[in-house]
Amino acid sequence: MSATRLLAVAKPSAELPHERASWGTRILTLIIILVPLAGAVAAPILVWGWGFQWMDLALLVVMYLLTALGITIGFHRLFVHRSFETYMWIKVIFAVLGSMALQGPLLRWVGMHRWHHQHSDTPDDLHSPQHGGAGIMGLMKGFWHSQVGWFFNAGPPFLDRYSRDLSASRALRVTSALFPLWVALGLVLPALLGGLLSQSWGGMWTGLIWGGLVRIFLVHHVTWSVNSACHLWGSQPFVSDDESRNNALFGILALGEGWHNTHHAFPTSARHGLRWWQIDLSYWVIYAMASLALAWNVKLPTPAAQAKERRVA
Description:
mainly alpha
């Protein structure tokens, strides 16, 4: 780590330049976080003994995979890092699926994440867990900020500069602007499927709960844990200019995103799990797309590049 960057990381947390968001934004953020949480807490109570069937499990798993892949493949690897190329109609599908995850419009998500990579684990990083202070309380404070707390701060100024390549596309601009519509679709779709498959109003409500609210809660906290847990716990096989870690648990749950140290060492790589045993479902989907000529220019680090960046024990 360079001396300048080391000094930046060592800067006291009291000097963090993060301003609080407006009251309206903070209240909306709280609703977005608490409503899926309430659904996840209430679901086992409300449907105990009658309301969880194989159909509900299928809706939960399918909606989880679709919307999480919208984040991991679409928002992250395709739009932020341009780790592969594909047709515009596929880009729009991934943008819609990622929007259903309720993590913000495409252009803002991309801008935030590119900012994170530019300032990773310095005081300018929006969601670093490294600046909470010393001891257990400092660790918990940093974890809380990285997992949830940073959403209540205002974003950096001129964030639109970080997504100009995407905003040049009318299709992506419109898709990003229609974010509320895609969020609503992500709730209505499992509810309709639940009602149609079960031929009942009860199936509609359980579809909304499990395929909608519980699914959003799980996608939120699994993907947010890449910001928090994967900058605190795990291995660092590659040299990177921050505290990113490879975390096997979130490598699986976050569909490959948990191999986070590898990602920060090779940010444009379409594959994060570079070893044969590192499960990376997102890359497997990209690989399948490439095999079907639906993706091309898939970027991967060469063996020589991996050897160069590998950390010496």
